[in-house]
Structure formats: structure tokens, C-alpha cells
Give the backbone structure.
Amino acid sequence: MAPPKIEINSYGEPSVFGLVFGQATLQHSVAVWDIWLGLSERLLDGRPQGGVKALCYHRALKFLRKANSLVFKVDLHCHSTASDGLLPAAEVARRALQNGVELFSLTDHDDLGGLSAARSVVNEAGAGFVTGVEVSIEWGGLQIHVLGFNFDAEDAALNAGLASIRSGRVNRAQRMAAELEKVGIPGCFEGAMRYAENPNLISRSHFARYLVEIGVCEDVRSVFESYIVPGKPGYVDHRWATLEESVNWITGAGGVASVAHPGRYKLTKSEMRRFLDEFKSVGGRAIEVVSGSHSAENVAVFSRIAREFSFMASCGSDYHGPGESYMELGALAPLPSDLVPVWKAF
Ligand code: AMP
Ligand code: MN
Ligand code: MN
Ligand code: MN
């Protein structure tokens, strides 16, 4: 039998049914043959067909991802109740799979507690799972987020580092509640805590949900406009990890560090460059180019920056839960095809 051609159809999916849309045609090799068998099985929807062996689809995908820049549904940024998401980790993973995500990472703030549940769900479905975390840091007086991917979740230094960040959160929450009391809103510490399934991870999102509950604002977004952001009641300065610490914890555990949603920070162009120079010099290797909170202009700007700094590119919805997110899991635009996707390093 002649070796098959693997084509990418207009939905960005690998296809072996002969319609050519122009992109990647891989060379004939044993690996390609394996992939064809794996894909055939999937395309035939598991129905038995003479001579088509069941080969591991995950293995095929892994090869394809490495082989070229094919378009897969990838979501490498989202949250569960282990931090400030609304859904348990297993449910977040299931939702991602339902939406067709083939490479998935859960990136809770400062906590790895959701990873094993998410991993089980994703592995069982034969999709790709990547360990993830979103580390809160302070740089130049701003709160910035550094994503970590593909690290050893058992690493002692990483776990100790994240525990040190978490231990500051309860104290910060008490100070936030004291500030809100000064403007006539009492009981916020207890109120916010009721929303925090992981009390060590008490977050501004939990305060926002409580302030909506008691009718101070109509929705979470308006709470962040009028309260708990710099210059507004309820915001307090806090010492998070440093940039260098966060990158060291991630890379020390064998992972890759990526700057989360760079379009969201109130940095001037020159401050952003200084930040990225420093990030690179301490071992940062990627930047989140496509994000649920990025405009098309942000994507263009940070694609240029990725090329210029030779950063790999990551992408993620930053999904927090139904009704509270910019974007649904897996609903991202693909990365610009000339960028090196961060999963090349996985
Ligand atoms: P924290 O880590 O406790 O400072 O909380 C930060 C979290 O608040 C972020 O991860 C977002 O989930 C949420 N957040 C920050 N700014 C906004 C905003 N403008 N609108 C909605 N959520 C926000
Ligand atoms: Mn969050
Ligand atoms: Mn973030
Ligand atoms: Mn996030």
C-alpha cells in the first residue's frame, strides 16, 4: 500500500482523506506510517476496519507537534478551585477536552493541588497533559504573573517557593479587609474566605465575588474597576516572589518559564523591554502571545517581541469559570505560524 499523505484540513485538523489544503506533507517514514494508523483510527471513530491497527494517537500527536507547526487545539492557561477558578480541576480538564483541546495545562495561581486530578482526566482521554502553574511575582512595584510549564510537580524547591507565596496571602487578605472596612464595607475577610475552596489561596477574585454577593457591585469586572486595584479602596501592596526566584523555581524543576498575558501590565515600552531583558537573563524562555485577555494588537506586538527576543510562544485562555472569563477553554486563535511554540521544548 502506498504511503499516505497527511494533510491539514480547513479546521486545522490532520486528515488522511486526500483533500489537499496546502500545508504540511510529511516525508514517508516509519513514524509517518504509525501516525497514519493512529489518525485513521480516530477518524474512523473507533469502528473496526480491516488492517487498521490501533496505534497510540497520543504518540502520533506528540510526533506531529515536534515535526512541524501544525495547528492543534492547545490551551496552556486556566484555573480551578485549587486557586481562584470556579470549577474543580477534573471538571476544568473535562471541559477542555469537550472543547477539543489536545494539549492542556492547568495553571493555578501559586498552587499545584489540582494537577494530579487534571492529569488523570486528560491522560485517560489520550490527550496531552502538561504540568503548569502561574506564579505571582512583584517587579518594579507591579504584580506580574510568570507561567511555568512541564516541570516536576514533586520538586522540593518549587513546592517550598510556592508555599512561601501562599503563606503571605492570608495576611494580605486581612489587610485588604481592613481597608475595605475603612470605606464602610465590613466582614470582607470572612465573606471572601467563604468563596475560597483552598483557603491558603485566598485571592482578590474571592473578594470580588463576595462584593458582588452583597451588592456593592454588579459583577466581578466592576469590582476590579472600583476596588482592589492600585489606587482604589481595598488594594494593599504585597511582597510576592521576585522575578528571579520564580524563574529559578520553574527551571530548577525542569520546566519552562513564560510571561503570562504581557499585554495586561501597566509598563511603558522601555520598562517592558527592561523586564523582558531581565526575564531572559535569569532563564525565562517564553512569552504568552495568544491570551484570553489579549487584543489583536497585543498579539501582534508580543509576536514581534517573541521574534526579537527569541522567545518561544505560549497560548492560553486564562479560563476561570462560566460567566467569569474573557474566553472559553480552547477557544483561542492559533499562534502565528512562524513563532516557535513553547511545546517544542516539552
Ligand atoms: P490575586 O492573585 O489575589 O492578586 O488576584 C489576581 C486575580 O484577580 C487574577 O488572577 C484574576 O483572576 C483576577 N483579576 C485581576 N484583575 C482583574 C480584572 N480587571 N477583572 C477580573 N478579574 C481580575
Ligand atoms: Mn486568577
Ligand atoms: Mn494572571
Ligand atoms: Mn491566570
Summary: Confidence is low (pLDDT under 50) at residues 9-34, 44-59, 67-71. DSSP finds eleven helices and ten strands in the chain.
